[in-house]
Amino acid sequence: MRPATLPDLFEAQAARTPDAVAVVFGSGTEREALTYAELNARANRLAHLLMADGVGPEQLVAVCLPRSTELVISLLAVTKTGAAYLPLDPDYPAERLAATLADGRPTVLITTGTTMAAGLGTEAGARRIDLDDPAVTDPMGRQPVANPARPGHHPENPAYVIFTSGSTGRPKGVVVPHAALNNFLAAMSDRLGVDENDRLLAVTTIGFDIAGLELYQPLLSGATVVLADRDEVRDPDALRSLVARESVTVMQATPSLWQALAADDALRSVRALVGGEALPAELARTLTDTAVSVTNLYGPTETTIWSTASAVTADTPVSIGRPILNTRVYVLDAALRPVPVGVPGELYIAGNGLARGYLGRPGLTAERFVACPFGAAGERMYRTGDLARWRADGTLDYLGRTDEQVKVRGYRIELGEIEVALLGQPGVAQAVAVVREDVPGDKRLTAYVVPTAGTADDTAADPAAVDTAVLRAGVASVLPEYMVPSAIVVLDVLPLTANGKLNRRALPAPDRTAVLEVSFRAPRGEDERLVCEAFAEVLGLDRVGIDDNFFELGGHSLLAVTLVERLRSRGVVVPVRALFQTPTPAGLAADGGATGPVFVVPENRIPRDATVLAPEMVTLA
Q1: Is the pTM value of this prediction over 0.85?
Q2: What CA–CA distances, in Å, run from 44 to 40, 91, 158, 229?
Q3: In terms of Cα–Cα distance, which of 417, 420, 438, 440 is closest to 430?
Q4: Are 573 and 606 within 8 A, CB to CB?
Q5: pLDDT (tens digit, 9 = 90+) per residue, 84-110?
């Protein structure tokens, strides 16, 4: 009998608990609940359709669908064919989706006619399967509901490929085999103890590898996946409501999202999983006071989701803990020698969780997946680029990066990719991207550009003539929202050190004062005054005019949450979606807008039944 793969394990669980609820999505009359038998049957039909089209092991199938039960069905269906799936977030810019498809070269693209532009994907050679096309749904409905045979399918075959930010400006696809994914899920099963009584909340974009825990851990345990919809994912109030309404017991999120949710009674029955970026001590204390338990997780995509874990308690310092099942970690010096306890070194990871490498990038694979001097012949270890040190108790402290890779709101970002995007814009000769923390706890991407050399016809030679709003829009057309700089500063020259290297410490903080003064229009009423004051406080500015754009001033999705909460505390109720549709004080306070006016509650107090309606935000991790 061949070793099990992910679909084997899921099919076994579906046979054990066919009538248990596997996944729920939506609310009210639109709420959809699928049992394990129903989910398995629908995935089988799509799998048979794909296999009839020649899809099988060692092939890649792209999946670009909105958050829905169809997304879960499609991911399972791809694994049932023996192929690997390439998840694409439909909220990403079309140009980035096209580039990922061109690099990944999937055999098939599963989407809908309303999700992706017609023809997108076909230029990369992929056959499109639009799930809303009768030419697809009719024959799929006639396919068998039995589990498909998978001859030749083996745990070393890829399960999925996740594209991550690349330092050269080209994202890289990490190829994760079933064996690594199965090892991770077994480790988490032992640690979390998820069973048929649990309900796990899935909030992570499918383009982020940690979504694998949210979907597959419950589906291999007889538990229920509570799939948050697009609006719920992007608004903390909606998530709190969903947690309570669906009796969620386990939730995974980045510290940035937990910051917006913590200290809420809805979390008192939740086991909290935290990962994606460093867990601040203050947030750790808040979560331990609120949640049933707190687990801090660490791991790069290249070693399959999470590689170390630590139980967080009120009386112990936060660490990234110890390695999970069948995983070994080493803290080494430049000569690959283990460093003593308490001494910083680079973190390397070995064991059963290692990915195959990078799709079509053998050179980069050899650079990051290196020979392991501490294991059997031929064994590899992954060079993380992270700094760490051992504690005396055998746990690990995370100390940051050895290179220019950064984490912002849980997303792994190579600054070089942002710089390449900037250099691709007209009139830009040099570009540098950095992460600034001018306000403690508020990390923001900031870019610095130098215009091209001047000619009689080149107005970009004058820094004052460079339109940073146009540059930002150009970058936003090729990079996802979380990689777009919150501010772009135009310089005559980049500051250098005495030996000719970039002097990052000399890069000036963004100064929006002059621009704001030119465009400033004072508030004309109480609503506008309150909104302007809240904008200024959240963005760290002296004052904001009624025409100033929240996002052009450096706002982002998490600051939008802070702004809405700040306004609510002052009696101004603003739907989060309204901020993204009309991101100026004048727009928010205007009567007759698309989302209606804001309103001020007498005595500056929100009534108990006041709610934020129809929220919409850009992607959180």
Answers
A1: no
A2: 6, 28, 19, 24
A3: 420
A4: yes
A5: 999 999 988 888 898 899 999 999 999
